[in-house]
Design goal:
About 35% of the residues lie in helices and about 15% in strands. The protein is α/β, with parallel strands linked by helices. The strands form eight sheets. Strands 4-8-9-6-5-7 form a six-stranded antiparallel sheet. Helix 21 links the parallel strand 12 (about 445-450) and strand 13 (about 470-475). The longest helix has about 30 residues, at about 860-890.
């Protein structure tokens, strides 16, 4: 049943009346937000309040006909509910109404108890913006909306035309009383289960009358001015922007909000309704393309998706920019909106951008760290790398170098030695007495269990720890590192390098529990009882795979994975005589090269694939050949020959083809073309298996036919809600960098999962980077420059040390000069709201805020005339455009197109 007086109150606050064309109806959010907490009796009193005109209980009691005592009691209840401000003025409590937003809706949502009891309060706040947003298209003068972006102060320090009202410090320095509260927008999102991962706590600062109200009603806690400045600083470090209530008059406000583009209802006006003029500051971003290195930091932190990576090389056929329609002169309906803005953020322009960043699974800002290395800023370069990859020293040695394969420089001469540059940068840190330890951003009192200490698990642990979680890594082996430690020989990746990278995790507070198999020694339920809130399962593919042929269970027939593990653990692995390695991948190469180091007198590899089809990297094949490993292509094992249970040889059959016309694995053999090869040992390296044991027993997590675990491709959540996954357990055997990239995404999902009301997808950047079109690039003007090569010892066959050298500093200077600098950030000035977040993320002074407008805030009483004037202008522009469009459509229609 409708509460009539409450409905009257909703109309009064809305400055309309029952029966009017724009009246508030019971189904509107303005009524729904009041309905659960405002009684008819409270509404009677509240109807006597005036907009921004403080009145005492004594004054109001005369208007409502109730006693002063009863009026005082009801007024306090109204204020507690958030439907009136209260301040002590001249020693007397005085009450008044404000506008809905920014005003009563935020105040009501900040009553935590009421929102818990009545989620419709949060839902009504959300619905209000969706109801009012469409009507605001193009009718507010620039920066005159009820909320306004105010730039991060350091971003406008170089702007000589800046005004004091554009500086955060002005508002803090002019006030003496401060409070901090939860963000009301994020509180609303959280209550609806639609949080974006940016949490609500201690976000919004109130000042003056608003601070007094928030402190007295328990919505916020009192803070000092220094604490307010610290909150602002921390918000900026974490990539947040600032907005202020904008109707207090020029140079005045009563709050500073620390906002994100994916949660803020004010920013929704820009992002969903594509109406940024209503909320923008006086500034827009400008990019210096000569300085920009397309690292992507500004792009991924931009709250309005105004920044995207493009390219800055000379195009043969320039990409045409589409002309943008504007709400200020165009009819603006749902066809112009972006309702999915929280899940469809774009990171590149249609032209594409740097191939190195696009092709790297972790999408590291490669062009960026190359530039920093060229300037000798190795610590900053390392920090940029570790934003996406915690283990650059490892990857500098075992990365497949997708980036180099894609490098545009390779179309001129040789690709930039990206991996060698990264290795050099990481080496500076390994040799430093003061290692780079990332800042821990928060302090979350929640425990997370990572199961498996390989690259995916370690990466996930690293990013969860830097976010502020208590992380414990459980590993069934006695050493951490997974395949980095147990599956890769020391001559490719020395174990002190892995251990050094792991030490950083320990510095971050990550705990390691070794020789403990989850599912055997302890169960997931046991860990849940120990208050672990989520699990990242990254057990890798550490088991060998058999061939399914006669004789493979004989003595001295070993899987390659098992063999490498024994060698790396220092177990007895001495070989002798003839060793046959079956397989043609990278692991098979490692197995063969290791076998030659532990006593194998002759080592022969046999694989199904031809030389050109071998899955092993070309570099690794060449290294094997240099060490006199014999590679025999296009042969498949038919059976293993034994005598008294011990291997004596292998019979092979000729492989005619490995793949069918659809490039599916479908080998065909010539059964009449057989050979027999003597063998004292056979090492089978034809793939790896995932050993689950009882880890997933009793859970809803499911496995695919190939024994990988089923999970969402974006969130990595499995069928058991608190279990997330990544690495080889999810994809099957891949490279360390693939697992590292998934580890970070897993950490993002776990953070969202364990925090109340957060969505796993809303506000999440899908990092769909795309390479530029090399066929459309003119490279004729570039000189050829030789690629720098690190010195390597030629004596490699009998040693387990990594004899590959590292570029020296002089070579680094020369090699970094070879980078073409393919990419640069592109600004959509219309969508840029001038917040300045981008400038705080740029290490290259490549992006700045430039003053484009000169509009101060308006007082509430001056807002309506300004909006009406703007609306009339807009209507005229739309009217003028219509006949022009009609004429163009006739002139250029297909029938009349000459």
């Amino acid at each position: 049943m409708v509460k009539e007086k409450v409905l009257d109150l909703a109309n009064k606050i809305s400055r309309t009346k029952r029966g009017a064309r724009d009246e508030i109806k019971p189904e509107y959010p303005e009524y729904k937000i009041l309905e659960p907490v405002i009684t008819e009796e409270m509404a009677e009193v509240a109807l006597c309040l005036e907009l921004r005109k403080p009145q005492s209980a004594e004054e109001i009691s005369k208007l409502c006909g109730k006693s002063v005592e009863k009026t005082s009691e009801l007024l306090w209840e109204i204020a507690m509910a958030g439907v009136a401000f209260v301040n002590k003025i001249d020693g007397v409590d005085k009450y008044w109404h404000d506008i809905w937003v920014p005003g009563h809706m935020e105040m009501m949502v900040n009553n935590k108890e009421n929102v818990r009891k009545f989620p419709q309060i949060a839902e009504a706040f959300d619905a209000y913006g969706k109801r009012k947003g469409p009507a605001a298209a193009g009718i507010f003068p620039v920066g005159a909306g009820p909320m306004r972006v105010i730039p991060i102060e350091q971003s406008i320090q170089a702007e000589t035309r800046r005004a004091s009202y554009e500086e955060v410090s002005k508002y803090l320095n002019e006030n003496t009383i401060f409070s901090v509260s939860d963000c009301s927008c994020r509180t609303s999102r959280e209550a609806m289960g639609e949080g974006c991962g940016h949490l609500k706590e201690d976000m919004c600062i109130q000042m003056g009358h608003a601070a007094e109200y928030y402190i007295r009603t328990g919505r916020g806690r009192e803070i000092t001015k220094d604490e307010a400045f610290e909150i602002i600083k921390r918000a900026e470090e974490n990539g947040l922007m600032h907005s202020i209530p904008n109707t207090d008059g020029p140079g005045k406000t009563h709050a500073i909000c620390n906002c994100c583009g994916c949660g803020c209802f004010s920013m929704r006006i820009a992002n969903m309704f594509v109406n940024p003029d209503m909320v923008r500051s006086n500034y827009v971003s400008k990019v210096d393309k000569d300085k920009c290195v397309a690292c992507g930091e500004c792009v991924e932190n931009c709250p309005s998706n105004a920044l995207r990576l493009g390219q800055k090389l000379c195009e043969i056929k320039p990409t045409k920019e589409k002309k943008r329609e504007l709400p200020s002169d165009t009819e603006w309906g749902p066809d112009k909106w972006n309702p999915d803005y929280r899940i469809n953020k774009k990171v590149v322009t249609d032209s594409g951008s740097s191939p190195c960043k696009a092709e790297c699974p972790a999408h590291i800002g490669i062009q960026g760290y190359i530039k920093l290395a060229s300037q000798g800023k190795y610590r900053e370069a390392l920090e940029l790398i570790k934003n996406e990859n915690p283990f650059p020293a490892v990857c500098g040695r075992v990365c497949p170098r997708y980036c180099e394969s894609a490098c545009t420089r390779g179309d001129i001469d040789d690709p930039v030695a990206i991996d060698d540059i990264k290795k050099f940068i990481a080496e500076q840190d390994l040799n430093d007495n003061h290692r780079y330890i990332p800042r821990i951003k928060h302090d979350y009192d929640k425990k997370i269990a990572v199961i498996g200490a390989g690259p995916a698990g370690l990466s996930c642990a690293f990013y969860l720890a830097t976010e502020g979680y208590k992380v414990t890594v459980f590993e069934k082996e006695k050493v951490p590192g997974g395949m980095l430690t147990l599956g890769i020989p020391a001559f490719r990746l020395e174990k002190n390098v892995v251990n050094s990278e792991i030490e950083v995790l320990k510095e971050l507070g990550v705990e390691f529990v070794m020789s403990t198999e989850v599912g055997k020694d302890i169960s997931l339920d046991d860990l849940r009882k120990k208050d672990y809130k989520a699990f990242y399962v990254a057990v890798g593919a550490q088991g060998g795979r058999k061939l399914g042929i006669e004789g493979e269970n004989s003595e001295n027939v070993i899987t390659g994975v098992e063999f490498l593990k024994d060698v790396n653990l220092g177990n007895e692995t001495a070989l002798k005589g003839n060793v046959i390695v079956i397989g043609g991948g990278n692991v098979a190469i490692d197995v063969a090269r290791t076998a030659s180091r532990v006593g194998g007198e002759t080592v022969n590899m046999y694989c199904l694939e031809s030389r050109n089809e071998m899955p092993a990297l070309e570099e690794e094949i060449e290294e094997a050949l240099e060490e006199k490993i014999m590679i025999n292509n296009s042969w498949g094992p038919k059976k293993i020959i034994t005598e008294n249970g011990k291997v004596t040889g292998v019979e092979f059959k000729k492989c005619i083809s490995v793949f069918d016309e659809n490039h599916k694995f479908s080998p065909k053999f010539d059964e009449n073309n057989l050979i027999t090869v003597k063998a004292d040992y056979v090492l089978i390296s034809v793939g790896q298996s995932i050993e689950w044991g009882n880890l997933l027993s009793g859970t809803s997590a499911e496995l695919n036919p190939n024994r990988t675990i089923k999970a969402d491709n974006i969130t990595f959540q499995t069928g058991e809600n608190d279990i997330f996954t990544g690495g080889d357990a999810f994809t099957g055997p891949k490279f360390a960098i693939d697992a590292i990239a998934m580890g970070k995404e897993g950490a993002i999902s776990i953070h969202r999962y364990v925090q109340k009301g957060q969505s796993l997808t809303f506000g999440r950047t899908i990092r769909s980077y795309v390479s530029l079109d090399k066929n459309n690039i003119n490279l004729e003007s570039y000189d050829r420059l030789p690629r720098q090569k690190a010195y390597s010892s030629h004596e490699t066959k009998n040693v387990f040390e990594d004899t590959r050298g590292t570029l020296n500093e002089e070579q680094i200077k020369k090699e970094t000069e070879r980078c073409l600098g393919c990419g640069a950030t592109v600004v959509d000035e219309f969508m840029c709201v001038g917040c300045g977040v981008c400038t705080t993320k740029c290490k290259f002074d490549a992006i700045s805020l430039v003053k484009k407008y000169d509009n101060a805030s308006l007082d509430l009483k001056d807002l309506k005339p300004a909006v009406m004037k703007q609306a009339i202008k807009r209507k005229l522009k739309i009217t003028v455009k219509k006949p022009i469009k009609a004429i163009k459509s006739v002139l250029f229609s297909s029938e009349n197109d000459v």
